[in-house]
Write a structure and sequence with these properties.
Layout (H helix, E strand, L loop, with lengths): L1 H27 L8 H14 L9 H13 L5 E2 L5 E5 L10 E6 L13 E2 L3 E4 L2 H18 L9 E6 L12 H4 L8 E8 L3 E3 L4 E11 L24 H14 L9 E9 L10 E10 L2 H16 L7 E11 L8 H13 L5 E3 L6 H4 L5 E7 L1 E2 L5 E4 H18 L5
Parallel strand pairs: 3-6, 3-7, 7-14, 8-13
Antiparallel strand pairs: 1-2, 2-6, 4-5, 5-16, 9-11, 9-12, 10-11, 15-16
Helix pairs in contact: 2-4, 2-10, 8-10
Amino acid sequence: MKIRILERCQKLAVRGINALAGKAAGFLHVPRKPKSPLADRLLADALRLAEIPSPTENEEQRASFVLERLTALGLSPLVDEGGNILARVHSPDLENLPPLLLFTNLGSDRWHPLESLCRLDAEKARGAGLADSLGAAALISVAERIRCGYIAASREIILLFAAGSFDNSDGSFFLRVTGDDVTRPAAAIGVRGLTLGTLVNNSRGIYRMKINLSLETGSPGKGDAAVPGASGKPLAGSGPVVDTLLDTAHKLAGITWDIEGTTKLYIRHIDAETTFGHTPAEGLLEIEIESSDGARLEMAMNTVKATVENAASGPELKKEALITSFIPVGDASVNDKLMQIVTGIMKDQYVRDQEENGADIAAHLSAQGIPALSLGIALGREGMTRDTIEIDSIEQGRVLLETLINRLIKEEL
């Protein structure tokens, strides 16, 4: 009798465990429900953009995608000779106020034919250059929200999609907006992919420069004596190109630009590759100058040019110092009110804000007296082969951007 009772208890226990396991398994296999269709649509646009080859001449393919989306919303975007797209978004409640500018870039220098075919799971999206496409997708989302009446703009909103990467820009695409009194904005927000909560205060400017060295055709090659270095002693006998590259890099790295340390020079890349057993005939040195003082930044740039021009070499060596990118030192005081508004909204939405000192393309505007800064709209990591984006953070970034726009269109900036 006792044995039967024990058997019945065991069977009941097993049935209970199996029932609980079945319920748990059913719960775990429920597909992830999207928290926001708007964020999903934004991500879908970003995934499609990320898979389009870049950089290309004027980013025609990516521009075509953006133009198609904007035209479908009833807008009439304009494209200039450089491939930059400008769309002016009106609202029925439009008042005679200076416009608000939102800008981003179309291109990416990290596109890959395989790695940019993005991958998704329940929590993360991965793909090469994916972070670079989020900004353009976010501006398309803003245009949709305005046209649907969820952003009731009392001032005109200008959307600017810059062809190519901001890293290779001199900010000239802003002239289409700032050069006209009608379109000169009251404030501007740059939209990028990463990182949500990080604010750059535009307090530093940069010059990126490329120094090219090449031997004239017919110049002596292998076996030439080394050129003298800075001390007058010959450097390693690798030929005029290598020796001049090393000598120039050594001189630039040894300069103390100012006592306060406000100006710094970084050597980013040095290359004089050739086939084995042959003296290099071409060389490349890439540097970056950074400073929080505009006058010293200009002085350092001119010093680099003079150092290259006076580098020890024979008459057969051609030297060229080119500026590949420039961001001025921004006027942080112009951004005081804008920064307060942004950080206040972040606090209300529980977005952890972090202010950084650095160079930001928005400095081209703050240097002209226009309040401007850049915002990231997602959390994640930018990798060498692929970016990783936290999907749930996109909705938080989208809401932050929309809230900020609704606030700025009512503010006297």
